[in-house]
Amino acid sequence: MTREMEKLERSLGGIKDLGSIPDVVFVVDIGHEKNAVREARTLRLPIIGVVDSNHNPEGIDYVIAGNDDSIRAIGYYARKIADAVLEAKASIVETKPVVKKTEPAAKKRLSRQRLKLKLMLKKRNQLQRNQLQRNQLQRNQLQRNQLQRNQLQRNQLQRNQLQRNQLQRKLKLINN
Asked: How many other C-beta atoms are found inside a 10 Å radius of the C-beta of residue 40?
């Protein structure tokens, strides 16, 4: 019984401290956390998901193409998302004077925070796509360079073989 309680506390302990439904859901492994993705879709929450090449990104609002198996990568993604959230919160707090908020103002503030987070995520996604394109172009250029080097080496080997054959023929003629 205590083991079961510890397991439930480990997996669901953070939920009891939530004051309300979250604004966004961040999922590291969308294949493993299918229930979280389904629950977020049901609640119509935006989903930020780390999608590995072995999963379909369909249904994920903000895709982070990356390795969801590496501990270091997961730590990196989590730090960057946390930094983005904290930066968005800080910028909203810095730009607004301290005023007693009414319920509509609080909703407006949350809406602005969501919008700012969405814009930041779109910008980051665009930067990631640009980086992926640059990486692909570099890989293609490296492959072309390698193919050219291989072709040059083959040509040189063929020339060397031809020269050897010619020398062997000359030697046979001289010996005969």
From this structure: 24
Cβ count within 10 A of residue 64: 22
Amino acid at 75: G
- Show the DSSP H helices in the chain as ranges: 2-12, 34-42, 71-95, 103-175
| Count of the separate structural domains present in the chain | 1
42-75 pLDDT, tens digit each: 888 899 999 888 888 888 998 888 888 888 988 8
Alpha helices in 48-102 (DSSP H): 71-95
CA 115, 42, 67, 145 dihedral sign is negative
Contact by Cβ (8 Å): 60, 37: yes
Per-residue model confidence as pLDDT tens digits over 102-149: 566 666 666 777 888 888 888 888 888 888 888 899 999 999 999 999
Calculate helix-pair angle for 103-175, 71-95, nearest 10 degrees: 140
Dihedral angle over CA of 64, 13, 45, 123, nearest 10: -30
The model's pTM = 0.47
